[in-house]
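Cross-posting from the modeling subforum.

Setting up a comparison between two proteins and wanted a second pair of eyes on the formatting. Protein 1 (sequence, then structure tokens):
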Amino acid sequence: MVMQIKNIAVIGDGGWGTTLSVYLAKQNYPVKLWGPFPEYVRQMNQNRYNPRFLPGIRLPQTITVVDKLDVALEGSDLVIFAIPSKYASKVLSKIKRTNVDLSGKIFLSVTKGIETNTLMRMSEAIRGKLGNVPLAVLSGPTIAMEVAKDVPSTAVVASSNMRIAKTIQRIFNSKTFRIYTNKDVVGVELGGSIKNIIAIACGVCDGLKLGANTKAAILTRGLAEMARLGKAMGGQVKTFSGLTGLGDLVTTCISSQSRNRHVGEQLGMGKSIQQILASMEMVAEGVETVKAVHKLSQKYRIAMPITSEVYHIIYRHKNPLQAVLDLMSRKAKSE
């Protein structure tokens, strides 16, 4: 039996949060979209566009953009958390301070990242701040602009509670957006997070103009890294060959709209990470996530050579070509 959902709040007016707001409004749900900057919120309400994060896509009239969290949360049955992992803790603390009763609300995390300080996945961070709220995560090969334009897309909703998962599936499923369910929350979240790191590595290959052979090797061996760490942390290996593992990885590594691939490409072309991030409006989650995953690989003693090289390129200023050469020069082994 699915739960009744009438009103939806989306916390985070970035590209993905805005896309999901537009999509759900088209499915005839009233949506309150929260953004942190009052003046920008006022402009969105007036002009019905989010030019910074989702240019060219009109906001339906059934979306109300708000700058107060209590207004967004009050009366909402489903709360979609679309805040970059770097800012998640701060926003979750603000949600807790609103004094809005959260016990009957379903929380859906759509953030693909890991907290750097705590090494928590987003579902863990949400429950760590808000208690044992009903919870699910949504992930998959979903470039925001393509979903906003109704390009046929797929995703997975994962929850330990299948009633919650099926409720989310019913809400999101349509002719243009096919949703699958899964119980492996750990695997789904880790796949969605680590693939951003591998996409940076693939972008480095593009920036160095190394060709398809190299990129295919990075993608494939990157998938092996994802699965190794995922298994060590309690995820199911088969999850990483599905939509939230291989599917999301391929999309992020090859799409010209991928922020993380773009970061890698610029690194490969010789730009510093500071220069790259200063030129970007949106957050490339992999830049922060690689710090957390580098720590996790050491904690669980899992070999993640591609992740390690991306970490050293970004935070130790290693030459990208040298990083590729070092990967190629590792001790020979079986696959």
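Protein 2 (same layout):
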Amino acid sequence: MEVNAVQNVRIIFSKTDNARFISHLDLVRCFQRAFQRANIPIIFTEGFNPKPYMTFAMPLSLGIEGLNEILDIKVKNMGFDEIKIRLEKEMPEGIKILSCHEPEIKASEVGFSQYIIEIKQRAMSLEAFDKAVYELLTTPGLTVSKLGKQGKRKVVKEISLTENIQSLKNWNDNRETNVITMILTSNNSFGINPFLVLNLIEERLEISFDSAHIIRKKMLTLDGKDFYSLD
């Protein structure tokens, strides 16, 4: 690498187990401290309040695990392998550095997220729940209430789920868990939180879950292709 060369770096990491309860703000602080402890020469913005160049693609909501999360940074005079080796030693339990490489696609081109949702409930049989969920989530014109903004005011808007569920499959493990996999719209201007879908299922089916475990498996580009071409 050239002296004083600035390198764009994409870090792919997982956030699982108890780390899913780390808020996004605390995750930012976690990485900032890790970069400092690992002596990684991250580039800072200029001005009165310099901040490290860090861009997370579609941050996770609290309580959701992520298997392939994206963080883009800029560093000076350090290779990808060295960044990974140094950084993975400084991460807390539940956050694992999977790879470091040069980004091929801008993070702003994320268009969708694929989720796996594991549900435990005792109100219905596994088969009846599968059937009811599929019928509900494929209902034409299905909407869900979402808190948004209109100017400076917060307002509740009705959002079409029919248009924003790109793919849906559900089944059960023949023991005690129902599993839903779905691809939801997830981009810089708009996204569907899977918790909204779960709340809608409980409300419409008039049941309560014993537990619901949400995992974001991966992100997709705006044209539906796998975002992780190098992984």
